[in-house]
Design brief:
about 400 residues, alpha+beta, Cytochrome Bc1 Complex, Chain D, domain 2, five-stranded mixed beta sheet, three-stranded mixed beta sheet, 8 helices, 12 strands, elongated
Length: about 400
């Protein structure tokens, strides 16, 4: 009798503690503030489809967990051996060999798992559906940043190549074609959909549809080298009219440098940086007066045969049209301008971040440029850094309002 009372009390306490734990979990579902990688705060159709699967699966798993754990604790306390117990006296009935019972607890989990399997397959098929007029974006994983290619006319030559921050129209399906330029990465924007691996030589498809305009954070989730932990990405969803404005701005050439310092920085870029980075129309062979091209070169991203050069580097044509750089690690603008949901960012450039990056990229982000992984330290002088910074901050669409 004493064991039975203890078992009942133990089971009740365990049930209360477990339910309290589930309450703590449930109260945080949907709370994205301060937790940008929260998988339980859906902001898009596909992520809602996943959420609608996760909640019932968690509920079933929670009920099973509570029943099993409470039952185990109750039996462990109820039937534990006391000092005064005698073998063969008041022992629990043995159920080994009870065929109906054994068949029952085999069939019940099998049926439960079969139901969950059907729900899983339905969700997997559903989140891959998309509208016939969905926009396509090719995403390329690099060490350690993400590149986005927009081919609007379907001729396999992208009109826009950008990095770090992908811009999409809100409330419209976007088909993301995920590739890799080096090792296996994994693309993941938890507010919009699940994760999908970027595998060399393959293309994997993911579909987004953001419910509302906003900036949604992501992170590479497949270990890919030294800076895997800071290989971040963003998706910025704009209202349809603002996206059209962004698209028009991105296919226009950047502003021409106007001051002597900016022009000095442009010449320095051609001589030092164009071996890896592209600004549409500028190559190491460019000569003054420098002119910009309307679209990226057809061979952008090919290895350039320099011991200092990475196999690929971000296209910087419209650097200041995005709000972060260095794999989404550093802000390009100060204050609220770094997170404003606008087609054309406006505000004061964060020149300190740009200069610190140019001074020594590996102080900001661990890399291995000797093995073609990441940006090398070019050992620039402070005057060169000032000139390059002045030039880089001009790299915004010529359609953008004057600074």
């Amino acid at each position: 009798m004493r064991n039975k009372q203890r078992a009942t009390i133990t089971a009740l306490v365990a049930a209360v503690l477990i339910m309290f734990g589930f309450w703590l979990l449930l109260r945080n579902i949907g709370q994205s503030a301060g937790h940008p990688l929260n998988t339980l705060a859906p902001q898009g159709q596909q992520s809602w489809d996943i959420q609608n699967l996760v909640i019932p699966v968690f509920a079933v798993a929670g009920v099973v967990f509570v029943l099993v754990e409470v039952g185990v604790l109750w039996m462990a306390v109820r039937f534990r051996r006391n000092r005064e117990d005698v073998d063969g006296v008041d022992e629990p009935a043995q159920t080994h060999g009870n065929t109906p019972l054994e068949i029952g607890w085999t069939i019940a989990p099998a049926v439960l798992l079969a139901v969950l399997a059907v729900l899983n397959v339905q969700t997997l098929l559903k989140i891959d559906n998309h509208q016939a007029d969905a926009m396509e974006v090719t995403v390329v994983g690099q060490q350690w940043w993400w590149e986005y290619r927009y081919d609007f006319d379907g001729d396999s030559q992208p009109e826009i190549i950008t990095a770090t921050q992908m811009v999409i129209p809100a409330r419209k399906d976007v088909v993301v074609k995920i590739q890799s330029n080096d090792v296996i990465h994994s693309f993941w924007i938890p507010a919009l959909n699940g994760k999908k691996d970027a595998v060399p030589g393959r293309t994997h498809q993911l579909v987004f549809n953001a419910d509302n305009p906003g900036i949604f954070e992501g992170q590479c989730t497949e270990f890919c080298g030294l800076s895997h932990g800071v290989m971040r990405m963003q998706v910025k969803a704009l209202p349809e009219a603002e996206f059209v404005k962004w698209k028009a701005a991105m296919v226009a050439p950047p502003r021409e440098p106007s001051t002597a310092l900016e022009k000095e920085g442009q010449a320095l870029f051609v001589g030092q940086c164009a071996r890896c980075h592209e600004i549409n129309g500028l190559t190491p062979e460019s000569t003054e007066p420098y002119t910009y091209a309307a679209a990226p070169s057809a061979n952008y991203g090919e290895e350039v045969g320099s011991s200092l050069a990475s196999k690929n580097a971000p296209n910087l044509t419209h650097l200041m049209m995005r709000q972060t750089f260095a794999g989404n690690l550093l802000a390009l603008y100060e204050g609220d301008a770094a997170t404003a949901v606008v087609a054309i960012p406006e505000g004061k450039p964060d020149t300190n971040n740009i200069k610190n990056w140019l001074r020594n990229p590996q102080d900001v982000k661990p890399m291995d440029p000797e093995n073609n992984q990441g940006m090398p330290n070019l050992n620039l002088s402070e005057p060169q850094i000032d000139a390059l910074t002045a030039y880089l901050t001009t790299l915004k669409s010529s359609l953008a309002p004057p600074a």
